[in-house]
Amino acid sequence: MFRTLYSFASSALVAAACFSSVPANAIELCETRFRTLCTNNCYTYSSPVINGTVECDKLNFVITQDAFSAAPADPTLQCSRTTEGYSCEAWPQGEEISYDWYGDDNTAIVTDIINPFRHFSCSAGTVSVVVTGPGGGTSIASATLPACN
Questions:
Q1: Alpha carbon of 43 to those of 49, 52, 115: distances in Å?
Q2: Which of 67, 87, 122 is the last residue of a domain?
Q3: How far apart are CA 146 and CA 86, in angstroms?
């Protein structure tokens, strides 16, 4: 049920950003691209892409339809500083994708969860996420989080 609600919320957020007026300081979407890599036994996921062209320097999304057995393509880990440490978001995201989070010494923090968000302390060091597709294919992204001093 959480996957369905999360998928709906993600889709609603993208749609709302595309079709509503967006304040000047909010993230604006430039375009959404669709990429189909299979025709049968597929799953769908989305990934952000930053387009640095003159005509569009806003956030783009690529929605990919890929083979059920394929690993999610182009994983990224986007982390930002918070008052208590760091907040990280794993990409790509989709209803049938799960995430395994690992700490600095490669010990599992939490595994097989559907939530692409994770909070870390100021002493987290290097964190990694293994992004797993519905057929078991995996891809990995890492980020080094500096101390918060």
A1: 19, 29, 17
A2: 67
A3: 10
Q: 42 with 97, same domain?
A: no
Please state, in angstroms and rounded to a whole number, the distance separating the CA atoms of residues 22 and 141. Answer: 30
Spell out the residues 6+ positions from residue 78 whose beta carbon is closer than 8 angstroms to its own.
48, 88, 89, 91, 143
Phi, psi of 105 (to 5 degrees): -100, 20
Rounded to two decimals, the pTM is: 0.70
114 Cβ neighbours under 8 A, 6+ residues apart: 2, 3, 6, 97, 98, 99
Q: Which range marks the domain in which residue 51 is found?
A: 2-67
Domain boundary among 16, 40, 67: 67
Give the pLDDT confidence of 115-148 residue by residue, as tens digits. Answer: 999 999 998 899 999 999 999 999 999 999 999 8
Give 75-110 as a DSSP string.
Answer: -EEEEEEETTEEEEEEESB-TT-EEEEE-TTS-EEE
Burial class (CB in 10 A: 0-12, 13-18, 19+), 12: exposed
For tokens 């597929």, the residue is 42
